[in-house]
Specification:
9 strands, single chain, two-stranded antiparallel ribbon, 7 helices
Length: about 200
């Protein structure tokens, strides 16, 4: 009887352990849901696969009103230049499901994109599907994949916590340069800094 109880305890613990890391991509993992079409501020439907270039693709979770995003967003177009210079595609996802009828509505996204002069795809991650599958935590949160869709870097854009004047380490820029030159990313994971994604939880 004692052995039976031990076996039952082990079996009931397995689902808990299995789901603990579910929906969280680790370095080296393959990108998922790359063919899912998402609505862009232009009205077009775009997937991660659509924007991927020869050396990979950058997926950036963002939104409209997070104070950290407001500090970083003026440099998003510069990030796009870094990506272009290293033949890496770029797409920015708004996964804030709970704010979809308010500050993160499509209309608000379109206004944001126009005001900031966004030169990249800014799309709706419907029902937070991509964020939940990747393990996106904050706005902003970076996921950089190489040419084989393997996760090469994830985390913060830099170490300035949104302040350009305080940046001493350009994590994302260095990772993009590494992909562009066919090198291994030296610092492949950092802690994301920002507001929590207001995701759909069920």
């Amino acid at each position: 009887m004692k052995n039976l109880l031990i076996v039952l305890l082990i079996l009931t613990a397995i689902p808990v352990l299995a789901t603990k890391n579910a929906g969280k991509l680790e370095i080296g993992d393959k990108a998922v849901l790359t063919d899912v079409k998402m609505t862009d501020v232009s009205g077009k439907s775009v997937s991660i696969a659509d924007v991927k270039k020869e050396n990979g693709v950058l997926v950036l979770f963002s939104c409209n009103t997070c104070p950290f995003v407001l500090k970083w967003e003026s440099r998003y177009n510069e990030i796009k230049k870094w990506a272009d210079n290293n033949n890496v595609g770029m797409i920015v996802l708004n996964s804030n499901y709970q704010n979809r009828t308010g500050s993160d509505s499509m209309e608000a996204m379109q206004e944001k994109a126009k005001k900031q002069g966004y030169n990249f795809h800014y799309v709706v991650d419907k029902e937070s599907r991509i964020a939940n599958s990747f393990g996106g935590q904050t706005t902003p949160h970076v996921f950089l994949f190489d040419s084989n869709y393997d996760l090469a870097y994830k985390g913060a854009i830099d170490d300035g916590n949104g302040s350009a004047e305080k940046v001493s380490k350009e994590y994302l820029q260095e990772a993009l340069v590494s992909l562009g030159s066919g090198k291994t990313v030296a610092i492949n994971e950092t802690k994301p800094v920002g507001c929590s994604i207001k995701r759909k939880l069920d």
